[in-house]
Amino acid sequence: MGSPFIFIFLLFILVIFWRNMIQEDLKKNGVIVNAEIIKVNVGGKVSGGFQCRFNFKGEMYEESSPSTLHSGVYDFIGKTFPAMYSRKHDALEILITPTDFEKFNIPFPDSLNWVMKYVIEK
Q1: Buried b (16+ CB within 10 A) or exposed e, 50-59
Q2: Domains and CATH numbers, the chain
Q3: Contact criterion met (CB below 8 Å) for 57 and 106
Q4: 3-state DSSP assignment of residue 38
Q5: Beta-carbon contacts of residue 95 (< 8 Å; ≥ 6 apart)
Q6: Residue 63, beta-bridge partner list
Q7: Residue 39 in contact with residue 56, Cβ under 8 Å?
Q8: CA–CA dist 14, 11 (Å, integer)
Q9: I want to staple 106 with a disulfide (CB 3.0 to 4.6 A). Which of 2, 11, 29, 101 is the partner?
């Protein structure tokens, strides 16, 4: 009876480890790209966040990105934001809110003050 619990627990630990490794790579080696939000991800394995299109070294890519936004997400379709991209992990993290920028020690630009009405304060 205990073995499914152990398997799920180990899988959970592995996912956390993998996510932390990707975050560290984004912080150390990530490059800033301009990413256009083309769709809101709901359900499935990419639940939450956005599907984004961006140019990296002359080639167009599409990647999903997590988001710290919880309201008005459909208002962001078609808009372009800076994002951190790791080619090593094909990982993209879009920068929309002040929290997103703080994570990478990048100042929040005044040009994005309009998004504050969508930010839920904790």
Answers
A1: bbbebeeeee
A2: 2-118 (2.40.50)
A3: no
A4: strand
A5: 81, 82, 83, 84, 101, 104, 106
A6: 52
A7: no
A8: 5
A9: 101
Task: Determine the Cα angle at 11 with ends 5 and 92, to 5°.
Answer: 150
Looking up tokens 């939000």 gives 37
User: How many residues comprise the chain?
Assistant: 122
* Widest CA span in the chain: 55
The one-letter code for the residue type at 89 is H
CA 32 to chain centre: 13
Phi and psi torsions of 11, nearest 5°: -65, -45
pLDDT digits (tens, 9 = 90+) for 18-58: 777 778 888 888 999 999 999 998 765 445 789 999 999 99
Q: At 29, is the secondary structure helix, strand, or coil?
A: helix
Q: How far apart are CA 73 and CA 37, in angstroms?
A: 10
Coil, strand, or helix at residue 34?
strand
CB-CB neighbours of 69 under 10 Å: 21
Q: pTM for the full model?
A: 0.78
